[in-house]
Here is the input.
Amino acid sequence: MEEKEKDQTNVGAEGREENSKRGSGASLLEAVREEAKRALAAVRDSRALYEVRMKYLGRAGKVTALLKGLREIPAEERPSFGKRINDLREALEGEIDALEESVRRRELEERLAQEKTDVTMPGKRRKQGTLHPVTRVRNQLIDIFVGMGFEVYEGPEIENEYYNFTALNTPADHPARDMQDTFYLTDEFLLRTQTSAGQIRLMEKKKPPIKMLSPGRVFRSDDDATHSPMFHQMEGLVVDREVSLCDLQGMLDEFARTMFSGTSKTRLRPSYFPFTEPSVEVDVSCAACGGKGCSLCKGTGWIEVLGAGMVNRRVLENCGIDPDEYSGFAFGMGIERIAMLKYGVNNIKLLTENDVRFLSQFRD
Ligand code: PHE
Here is the structure.
């Protein structure tokens, strides 16, 4: 603002006054010409050039203002002075256009030189994500069992007592129902403690033959090196005529060979679950030592991997399936546990800490 006020060639009201005072305003025109020349000589880039163009030829430019000021000079001087202003304008336009071309060409050349790609430079490697080991094992399990004709069914994580316990023949006084083990949301609703709840939901809807695989998160009030309050399970359920424990073991052998090693074997030990009868715990021969005995299998040659059994006839009845006509087996395994065994991970927390140094080791 200050600068403008001092500016000799500012052709505002003052300028016009000057115009008329001096009659022709010729000296003002000369001043504008000189100033424009100097401004042009100082131009270094297209942006500055644009500013010069605007400052002199723009709608509020100084040359434009001179033309506007014509009105105020004596009529007889107008034609000749008008011509001089027009000449100045054309001359300036010509100079600016010419300069613009050379400035733009130079700028383009500079940019091309600057942005030249050196194809011999080493590339920037992009960090690539990897699938989480739990996801990998879950996908492998799905592949194995879908290959045997299982269908994937996912139940809800928030369950009610009926699906999680009652229908699974788990009586009200069973210790698993205790607050110590189960996260209750209300008296009736809870975070499911097992994917077995999905067995009931599916059997209520679908009648045999059934071959269901149900992966999902489960929640238990448990927390140490091998237990986490949230973990994943993979549930399997087969219901049909004449299904036997031998069918279960045959399928689990196939699972163990694919998941662990081509020579893996399984072993069934008697156990107890309210919803299976008989119930078994399934061990897989230790892949680390081939069954000879090592620190991983604590010298036994076997590692426990899952719980299973023949579906309790009461469970079938609860779902409206005749236990005299149909039988079935079910199994449930912890996906984290399988991942820990398969990859030699000794603390379950590593699977939830999301440490990239740990996770990036799981590449194909
Ligand atoms: N639901 C059982 C558990 O969480 C595992 C299991 C599933 C056992 C199916 C038998 C049959 O421990």
User: Anything to note?
Assistant: The radius of gyration is 43 Å.
